[in-house]
Design goal:
globular
């Protein structure tokens, strides 16, 4: 399966790096469960530039963005909705979680992500020794 490449503004690379270095507690908690292909063998990136935006987490193979809505999203619902719509028009799927839910109920957040992948994704082939 060929991945769809979504272009991005190169100027966002520096900001994405800064965001990776200053992740919120909820982002750290979720990243610890997504990194190193821990989620059903899928590779996720954190603070991924896409078009003129940066999404919290992104899996290229699933075209799945995961957003944690916390303080930086307060009062920005309209901008968030527009950003999500533009990326959805490129084929990106979204899962959104409240910062509080990630911090207080990570088990159900992970279950929701896993369930979405099982319903919508093609599980990666296992490599055999």
């Amino acid at each position: 399966m060929k991945r769809k490449i979504i272009p991005y503004d190169p100027a966002l690379v520096v900001l994405a790096k800064q965001l990776r270095e200053n992740m919120t507690m909820a982002e750290v908690l979720l990243w610890n469960e997504l990194k190193q292909k821990k989620m059903l063998g899928f590779d996720f990136d954190r603070q991924r530039p896409m078009l003129r935006f940066i999404v919290d987490f992104y899996c290229k193979d699933l075209m799945l963005a995961i957003e944690i809505d916390g303080g930086s999203h307060d009062g920005n619902k309209e901008a968030d909705d527009q950003r999500q719509q533009e990326l959805e028009n490129m084929g990106v799927h979204f899962l959104r979680f409240a910062d509080r839910m990630v911090r207080n109920d990570i088990v159900n957040v992970l279950y929701t992500i896993q369930n979405w992948i099982e319903q919508n994704g093609v599980l990666p082939e296992k490599t055999h020794p």
